Amino acid sequence: MTQPSIPPLKPAERMKIPRQSMPAQSADLRNANFTEVNLGLGEHLAIREAQRCLDCKDPKCMNGCPVQINIPAFVTAVARGDFAGAAKHLFRDNALPGISGRVCPQEKQCECLCIRGNKGEPVAIGYLERFVADWAREHAAATAPVALAGMDNSTPQDARPACPTSPVAPTDGTPRGRVAVVGGGPAGLTAAGELARKGYAVTVYEALHDVGGVFIYGILEFRLPKAIVRKEVDQLVALGVKIECNVVIGRTYTIDDLLSEEGFNAVFIANGAGLPVFLGIPGENLKGVYSANEFLTRVNLMKAYDAHSATPVLRPKQAAVIGGGNVAMDAVRTAKRLGADPANLVYRRSRTEMPARLEEVHHAEEEGVAFQMLTNPLAILGDENGWVKALRCQRMELGEPDASGRRSPVAIPGSEFDLPCDVVVEAIGTKANPLLTQTTPDLKLDKRGNIVVDETLMTSKPGVFAGGDIVRGAATVILAMGDGKKAAGAIDRWMRGAVGS
Ligand code: FAD
Ligand code: SF4
């Protein structure tokens, strides 16, 4: 398919274009359904937004992208109306752009460095990334030779990406070696795709019955439809990545089994940090208290939002969700959709300190979530039958900055009050699950139980690499993907004998 070529605008004309808004379902409709909130830019809006890009000689946006997408190249291609060309640039550096375009905290990554933002608002890079990924999926025939360039041994040599960090796979079809990937989340899937492109035979072992990690059990359908995840995983399978679900490494096989009996040459551990942390306040054993992981897994992965699903979940009349990150935001918006009125978000600092993506905070507010800011939970109160009836809280004020640089909350004496609720969801963080590491005693861990790696992401065990949340602690999708990409490069060099041998 040939693409139209729209002539470039002069810089002054580009500066006059306002940032385009993302079309979305109206708040009063969407707070009662689980379908996607953002509707995506159409072709016209995408071109208009991309025309705002100044195509800077020394672009800064890429410095904020952990997977080093060539942002000016793909954005200027969109501005020309060359969507297939844009897809070519995007897929070269990012195997999962439909996902990262939806869930990346762009305002803290690429967009906060965008030079266009020095005067006015930055280019909406995330919206454009999503647009191109969706366009490519919908126009698979037009992009097949593009999106699959370098992913397929049958692709002609000159059609492959000229990416210096992606050596071309062997053309005789013989794999360069066998790599096992533990965990099918963003870190594992990215590493798997990169390694397959480099010519390795890759098997992903996933503990759950489906791959995607947080994409499928955590982040909700209304932010990231499962069909998008499925399509991007299908592209990896088409590359030759083998996926084995219902395999728990540490139980079904140990890491040593993978390297000996199963015959893998290297392993990438990307099993995330899925063990919930609780506040340790009185009343956590009452009926109606969930970790965010359990609440979201029931509703999301096990489809409890669907009346026909066999998965039980309490449909809150009044909910209190504790936390201020993306997980808390997903949980409180879910509680709202299940009928909670009010659905309270209880956070001990102020809105400015909330780590959640700005867009999620904005959407939650529009949907009618009740923000209980500067509020610290003290205890969960129950009725005579052991069911949650309220959350005892205390009001806080902001004091001096703490080690994180954020102003720390200080309790206001005598400000205690009870927030009525029948469901409490704790979304205050997660940590590493020791199941895998306990069975691999020669893996060096830090004091939080995360795996220690060197600058190539190799662990204390030769040939065993690790990345994503299991190394960083709970972080972001794009950092996990960046680790997956980096680990794939390091594994390739290690296998060729350049590193660690
Ligand atoms: P995970 O995504 O956790 O994947 C690990 C995988 O390994 C899982 O599939 C797990 O089942 C599997 N596994 C675990 N143990 C084993 C084992 N022993 N054997 C085999 N498989 C195993 N980040 C953002 O950037 N933007 C957001 O909007 C955002 N929202 C979030 C919302 C929620 C509800 C949650 C929970 C997280 C959110 N995050 C967000 C954080 C982000 O999703 C994580 O930082 C990221 O998924 C980490 O990727 P990972 O590949 O390291 O681990
Ligand atoms: Fe920005 Fe994330 Fe896309 Fe990189 S991957 S350009 S950080 S939205």
Tell me about this structure.
The chain is α/β, with parallel strands linked by helices. Helices cover about 30% and strands about 15% of the residues. It is built from 18 helices and 16 strands. The protein has helices at about 10-15, 25-30, 45-50, 70-80, 85-95, 95-105, 125-140, 140-145, 185-195, 215, 225-240, 255-260, 290-300, 325-335, 360-365, 435-440, 470, 475-495, and strands at about 180, 200-205, 240-245, 265-270, 275, 290, 320, 345, 370, 375-380, 390-400, 405-410, 415-420, 425, 430, 465. The strands form 4 sheets. The chain has a 5-stranded parallel sheet. The chain has a 5-stranded parallel sheet with strand order 6-14-7-8-9. Strands 10, 11, 12 and 13 form a 4-stranded antiparallel sheet that branches. The longest helix is centred in the last third of the chain and has 19 residues, at about 475-495. It is globular and about 70 Å long. The structure holds flavin-adenine dinucleotide (FAD) and iron/sulfur cluster. Flavin-adenine dinucleotide binds near residues 103, 219, 248 and 478.
